[in-house]
Amino acid sequence: MSIPYLRAAGTSLMLDARGTGVPVIVHWGADLGELTGAMLTTLADASVPSIAPSSIDVPLRLTLLPTLAQGWSGRPGISGFRPGRGGSAIDLRLVNVRAGERPTGRFALPGTQTLTLLLADAAAQISVRTDLEISVQGVLRLRHTVTNTSTTAGDAAFELGSLDVILPVPGRAGELLDFTGLWTHERRPQRSTLGHGVWSREFRHGRPGHDDSYLMVAGTPGFGFRSGEVWCTHLAWSGDKRAWAENSPLGFSLLGSGELLAPGELGVAAGASHSTPWTVAVYSDAGLDGLSARLHPWIRSWSTIRTPRPVVLNTWEAVYFEHDLPTLARLADAGAQTGVERFVLDDGWFTGRRDDRRALGDWFVDPVTWPSGLHPLIERVHAAGLDFGLWVEPEMVSLDSEVARAHPEWVLGGVPEPSATETPALTWRFQRVLDLSHPDAFAWVFARLNALLTEYPIAYLKWDHNRDLLAASAHRQTAALYSLIDAVRAAHPGIEIESCASGGARIDLGILERVDRVWTSDTNDPFERQQIQRYTGVLVPPEYLGGHLGAATAHTTGRTSELSFRLATALFGAAGIEWNLIDASAEELGQIAEWITHYKRLRPLLHSGVVVRADPSDPALVLHGVVSRDQNSALFAQVALAAPHDAVPERMRFPGLAPERRYRVTPLLLGGSPRTIQDAPPAWYAALEGSTATLTTLADAASGGGGGGGGGGGGDGGAVTLTGAVLALVGLPAPLLAPEQAALFAIDAVG
After folding, report:
1. Which of 35, 130, 302, 730 pairs as cysteine with 106 (C-beta 3.0–4.6 A)?
2. Is 583 a catalytic residue?
3. Where in the numbering of this chain does the Glycosyl hydrolase family 36 N-terminal domain appear (predicted)?
C-alpha cells in the first residue's frame, strides 16, 4: 500500500507513502474516480513540486506530521523533548503502512475503510502510529498515538508538547469560517480571508467554552449553506484544544487541530503510549449543508440515543430554587395535560441548596424540603404519565459544603486554611471544581450518583458544568469525566444523559459519544436561539439539540416574544418546556398542547430527515427546514429576525426537494398566525386561508421514517402545487412577517 487511495460517497483521500519519509497527503477532497495503480503512481509523481529559490534543496512536501527536520517552518505536527537531553528536531521515518484494524465499539460500522501508518524516530526513542478511517458517508477520522520506545530503566519520560492532525487544503479555499460566542450567545459565526500566516484559536477553559471555534471551515470565496467547496475539521474532545488554519508563504494551506497541552502536563513514560483525540474532517462541494449531509447520517449510524425523543418539562425557569411538593406536583400535572412526557427536577433538590453559593458536592436529597425523599414527587410524576429526570453537577463543589470541609484535597487549586496568607483560587458562579482525577473524589461522586440512581427510578440526568477549570490539568480532568460518565452508564444502562455546560459551552463529538442530548444554550429567547440552533446544527443532528419553550419574557435577555415565534423556534430540535405552566392561561395551554401534538407527529421527520438552509440575500430573513430522506415530505420555517431590506422581500426558495416531483405547500399555524405587516398576503397564501395543515394529514409525515405527507390541508383544497425544481429555483412570495416572527410550511409530495 505505497500509494493508499480511499474513496467514499463522493470524497477521496490519497497518500504517497513511498520511501522512508513521513507520508504525504496528495489529495483530500472531491472523489477522483477509479484510479488504477499506474494512474496513482503517475499522479503521485506529478504532484512533486518545484524547488523554489532560497529553499531546501529537495522538493518540499507537506506530510501528515510536518517538522523542521523535513524543512517545514510552519506549526509542527509534533513537538516534545526528554529532560536532560539536548534538543533536536523530531525526525520520523516510515516503518510500515497497512490496512487498519476494524474499529471497535460503536464505530465498528459496515463499510468503514481504515489505514494505519507506523512512524519512528530512533534517536528520540519514540514511535507514532497514525490511524485513518473514512466512513461510508465520506467522514474522515484521524488520530495519532505516540509511544515512548525507550527500554532504559529509569529513563526520563518523553514530555509531549503537541501532537496534532494537519490536513492540506487547496489554495482556492481562501475564506475561513469559525465561531465565537458568549454565555447565551453561542455559535456566533466569523469569517475572514486566509492570508499568509496562521489563524489560530486556543481554548483554555477545561471545556470547549462558549467561544469555541466549533468547526474550522476553509472554502472557496463566498461559500454558503448551499454552494461552494468547503473543507472542515472538528476536534472530538471536551477539554483544552486548539484549531487553526495556516497559509504558508512556502506554498501550502492547511487545517490543523489538536489537544492544547500545558507545559509539563503530559509525560509519556518509558514503554507507555498516549493517543490523541480524534479529528473529524469533512469535505463538501455543496456548502455547509453538504457537511451536515455527511455528518448527520454518520452520527446517526453510531448514535445510541433512543427515539422518539420525549418532550421535556424542566423546572429551572419555572421555580428556580423554590422547591416544594405541592407546586411541583401542580406543574407536573399541567405538563401532563399538554402532552409532556418527561419531568426534570433542576437545581435545588439536595442538602442545603437554597441558592447558588453552597452545597454542590453534597449529593443527598434535602431532608427539610423532602422529608420523605424524592419518592412522593416521583410517584406524582409517574401517576401523571411522565418519567422523571434529575439535575446534577458532578464535576463541581461549593466551598460551603460538607464534602469540601471534609476533603479540601479534592478541590482543584486547594483550599487554604483560614489563617493562611495565600490567595485562594478563584470561584466562578461561587463554586470550585472537584478534582475527578483524584481516585477518592472520583469514587465519591460515582458512589453518590449510583446511590441516587439505585434508590430512585430516575430515567434521565441533566449533567451540568457551570464554570471554567482555571486550574490543574484539563487533560486529566477531561479523561476522568469521560470515565465517570462511562462508569455511570455501565452501572445503569437505561439512564439517559443530557450534557449542559452553562448552556452550550461543551458541545463536541467527544461528549456526544456519551450523552443523549445537549443543552444548546442557556437562553430560551427565540431570537437568540435562531442563530445558535442554525449553526450548532451544522455539526449536530437536531434530535440532540435541546430547545425549550420559555416564558414570554426571556430570563436571559428580557426580550418579550410572541407565543407563535417561541413555538416555531423550539419545534426544530429535541423539544421541551421551561416555563411555569401554572401561570399560563387556558388559551396558552391549549396552544401548547396543540404544538406538542404536532411535534410528536413530526418527530420522525425532524429527527431523521435532511437539514437544509437557504442562503438569504437579506440577512434579516432566514429559511430553514428538514426534508425526509425519501423526499416525500418536508417542514420549513421562514423567519424574520429584523425588518427586511426591501418592502417586498425575495421569494422563499425551498431547497432539498426532488426536482421532478410535484409538491403541495400548506401553512402550518402554531400558537396563532404570525404577525404580518402587509395590506394583503400573497395571492397563493390568501387562497390557502382556512386550509392550513391538520393533525390528521400531519400523521402521514411520521410514517416510514419521515415519508408520507408533511401536512396538506386534506386533498388539494386550494393548496398551491408546484415541482421541487420550481420551489427551489423560483420559489413563492413570502408573507410580510413583522420582525421576530416565523411562518411554518408543510410540504407534501403529490402522487
Report:
1. 302
2. no
3. 22-264
